[in-house]
Specification:
By secondary structure, the protein is of the alpha+beta class. The chain has four helices and four strands; from the N terminus they run αααββαββ. α1 crosses α4 (129-139). The longest helix has 26 residues, at 2-27.
């Protein structure tokens, strides 16, 4: 069961990254920063129910503190990917999807996340230490404080926002918030 959750999470990281890039290719804009809600709804179809929009300034604005919330352009990010058909779900829902471990998946562009970690990152909360270490090894170097996948200690049963500093080692008995750069 644990192995299947790790595989599902790895697939989700890849799918969200692919959706992000595909969205940019199709619309020449970033999901979540694509324009105001009325302009997006004018596209018709599933876009008629899109929730939220962005300021179309060329940058996805989601602070570390808002990784798992709908604040900033985070909610619009998920709604736009749903409206475009890149991830499943109702585009009127701005909430982030659940990950395989029951926690939330979120997004942040805050460079002061997990050390100096620039760019847009997809994060998952409530990831058990054993699974976090396995995902880090699958995508990267197995070190929570370096590379393209990083982790910070979380509070059990809570979608803990990624911290400013990354963890220095994984502990199988703890939970982590893990983030992977898109």
């Amino acid at each position: 069961i644990d192995n299947s959750k790790v595989k599902k999470s790895a697939g989700d990281f890849q799918a969200i990254s692919a959706a992000y890039v595909s969205y940019q290719d199709r619309y020449q804009r970033l999901p979540g920063d694509d324009g105001n809600q009325n302009a997006l709804r004018a596209r018709g179809g599933d876009w008629a129910n899109v929730a939220g929009g962005g300021n179309n300034n060329g940058a996805l604005l989601v602070t570390r503190a808002n990784t798992f919330s709908t604040a900033g352009e985070g909610g619009a990010f998920w709604s736009a990917l749903r409206a475009a058909g890149y991830i499943s779900g109702d585009p009127s829902v701005v909430a982030s999807p659940r990950n395989a471990f029951g926690g939330a998946s979120g997004v942040t562009s805050d460079p002061a996340t997990l050390g100096t970690f620039p760019g847009v990152k997809v994060c998952m909360g409530q990831v058990p230490g054993k699974a976090a270490a396995a995902l880090d090894l699958q995508f990267d170097d197995g070190q929570p404080d370096a590379g393209a996948l990083r982790a910070s200690l979380g509070t059990a049963g809570t979608n803990t926002v990624p911290l400013a500093a990354a963890a220095t080692a994984y502990d199988e008995g703890l939970e982590y918030t893990i983030c992977r750069r898109i």
